Amino acid sequence: MRGPSIAHIVLVIAVLATVPLLTASNVVLNFLTMALLIALVGQGWNVLGGYGGQYSFGHAAFFGTGAYVTAILQVRYGINAWLGFVLGIAAGALVGAAIGALTFRSGLKGSYFALVTLAFAEVLRILASVAPITGAGVGLLLALDLRPQAFQFQSRAPFYWIALALVAVSLVIARLIEQSRFGAWLVAVRENEDAAKAVGVDTARVKLAAMTISAAITAAGGGFYVQYFLFIDSGIAYGPWISVEALLAPIVGGVGTVFGPLLGALVVKTLGELTKLVTGHAPGLDLVIYGGVLVLVIAFAPHGIVGLLADLRARLARLKSLVLERVHG
Amino acid sequence: MLSPVILVAAVLNGLLTGAVYGLVALGLTLIYGVLHIINFAHGALLTAALFAAFFAHRLLGLDPYLAAVVLTPLFFALGYCLQRFVISPAAHGEDRNILLVTLGLALLIENALLYAFGADTRTLNLDYAFDVVDLGIVFLAVPRVVAFGVVLAVAVVLWLILTLTDTGKAIRAVAKEKLGAQLSGIDVAHIYAVTFGLGTACLAIAACLLIPTYYVNPHVGNAFVLVAFTIVVLGGMGSVPGALLGGLFIGVVESLSGLYLGESLGQIGIFVMFILVLLLRPRGLFGERA
Question: Do B202 and B247 form a contact (C-beta atoms < 8 A)?
């Protein structure tokens, strides 16, 4: 399957970049920034789950590590926010590599992999909820310092553009993986791991590399979250909510595709907001919708929105050739 | 050093809690053993059962032990329908999809309960909730002792169903060799759904045993589900005696680590054990070779 080109990515990002020029509404920018954050985290999941077929239920482990390292370095050690952000990504990658090394070496896959990633995220959540360095149950509050050098801004627009830039990088990474030999190995692992191994793919190493990249992208989402909200606690950082959103976006959008996570994040977040609009503040209802969407998408559109669009295009092409046949025949 | 009396009390209480864990794990392992799927909705279904037992008493005045008689067939039917009409058609026979469909169901059920009843924690005030039996050195809560006995009885009944009835034999046949079972005329889709129903029925019984001494809120199932996963992995995926023994073992581990590490860190003991077992011996202690 031929994926989208770099030109497609540039076009999409360019269009999205104009939004803050058209509206100054904090509501719109806030909504889109959150959607971009989920698109970023979802792309992280997609690299491992979508291309590699390793479904993680615990991407919170990487999101939370990125968030906490970014925050702790600033609050406890006075390190610059941008440097903290980069180190947070590195720490997330490290955690991904460590969990990957342990699980893949033991040959865990499928349901076992999902379970063990979930358990790792939970262990980190409990540790963060008692350790003094993470602020234990209270959480960590970043000091207000509204300067670009401190990764804090007066208005929403710069945050939006930074989130967009991060998403752009993640799209390019996905596209590079898709077109590379490494990506072919990864897809081979997804489709049939034993066969991939038989033809000489070092499957454990391929999975480990994918998990490290995946964790780094997701950790960037965590670091961004902290700078945006200036607060983190163990429930937000390592809670199941982010693990669910991370997998929901690519699955709804189209698993193992470049634009799937972005499309999925926009659709899922829109659905969530619409529910809130219709029902007012109703705790749980947005997650009811997410759960229903997850079941429905898998039942009726297992290739997500991207799959539906491809279907539609194929159908239109068939219709066109049929019409042309009639006209000329 | 803690006195031996406290230690004995902790171990006995751990065994009582562990029995109910075992029952929850029994449902999970049964489903895994036959359908080879991990049911992520197990915890949410347990929460639903706890709410059902709670409201059966609050609204209808049904004693939890009586409610079990009604709720068990009801949850069997619920489980049967979920597998037959939702999970199986939605998953298109792919393991990854089953994982996601049951995750979706878990979100749906748990948050529908949150939406309907709010995040409040509810408890029943039953007059026998605080009755104790005196063993000379320790006191044990009567409802928990009853729960222990009922779990053992349920395990025996389940074992009898699996070994003596035609449906039980069909279940075991499907678990061993799906295609062969199908060729000899067994309706595999039906057997899958029956198994899922049995697994869900275990939850209804567990809920009725828990509710006299426990509480219910929309997230209560989560506390059980990872424990149940740990037990299932420890006991060997699909092994019924493994689930029971694993349950008792984990109950004691939790009780002791709670004693030594405190409430919130005590939970970690279970997760760490879970990860270690998965990494070092994914077949479990009693599991058969994959």
Answer: no
